[in-house]
Amino acid sequence: MSSQQLARKPGFFLTFEGLDGSGKTTQILRLITWLHAQKLEPVQTRQPGGTPTGDRIRELLLDSKSAGLAPRTELAMMFADRAQSIQEVIAPALEAGRVVVCDRFTDSTEAYQGGGRQLGSEIVLEMHRLVCSGVQPDLTILLLPEMKASLARARRRNTRDTKATGMDENRFESEQDAFFQRVYDQYRTIAAREPVRVVTIEGNLNVEEVYAQVIKTVGLRLRQAGLL
User: Fold this and answer.
1) Buried/exposed 88-104: b ≥16 CB within 10 Å, e otherwise
2) pLDDT for 25-51, tens place per residue?
3) Does residue 180 sit in helix, strand or coil?
4) pLDDT band at residue 154, thresholds of 50, 70 and 90?
5) Which of 6, 64, 199, 206 is 20 to 30 A from 164, comparing alpha carbons?
6) Are 72 and 119 in contact (CB under 8 A)?
7) Which strand (E) or helix (H) includes residue 52?
8) The domain containing residue 155 runs over which residues?
């Protein structure tokens, strides 16, 4: 079920995916500004996090001190966060006809836990079916710059943020490159499986080049949905 089936009014559910350091945060902030300029009053959220309960789950999931989490525990926590986000943020916004922009959704879980942790896609997609009430993005923007460049940016940022705030969100970035190669490859598999929903922006493009493609894609889909 897409947001168009869920919503009583024509809401639109847009997600951003990619490795940390791929530029998601920058593009989401720019897109939110653009959506406001179109008078669409978007709802911005993220996973894990985005609700009081989700933020507590995020802290556990991303903190390096949680290094002993079993892969299936990690998977269950991701979906606990997602269920709360759907209940508290995403579904009400879609039902009100809003555009929801979410940093990560189930594609991240399939890539990181299904691919990176080698749990496979089947368990992730079954959990999505059981937990997420059929909510599926209308459009997913997948940012895939070169993997090593993404990881280097993410590790530099997290080290800087830890020094500045004392918050440690480095647990995933401490993984070896083989883990991230599996994540990267799984993202490609998802994009090939769902070429209509998932629009991939590849290569080491600059911020403006990526933004131009994001706005072109989002603008087209919103017009098709009757929101522009």
Assistant:
1) bbbbebbeebbbbbbbb
2) 999 999 999 999 999 999 999 999 999
3) helix
4) confident
5) 206
6) yes
7) helix 52-62
8) 3-224
Q: How many residues does the chain have?
A: 228
pLDDT per position as a tens digit, 162-194: 566 666 666 676 688 899 999 999 999 999 999
Q: How buried is 178 (Cβ within 10 angstroms: 0-12 exposed, 13-18 middle, 19+ buried)?
A: exposed
Residue 122 burial by CB count (10 A; 0-12/13-18/19+): exposed, middle or buried? exposed
- Residue 133's domain is classified under what CATH number? 3.40.50.300
Q: Is the dihedral of CA 136, 142, 148, 153 positive or negative?
A: negative
Instruction: Give Cβ neighbours of residue 155 (< 8 Å, ≥ 6 apart).
Output: 21, 170, 173
Residue at token pair 């070429």: 195
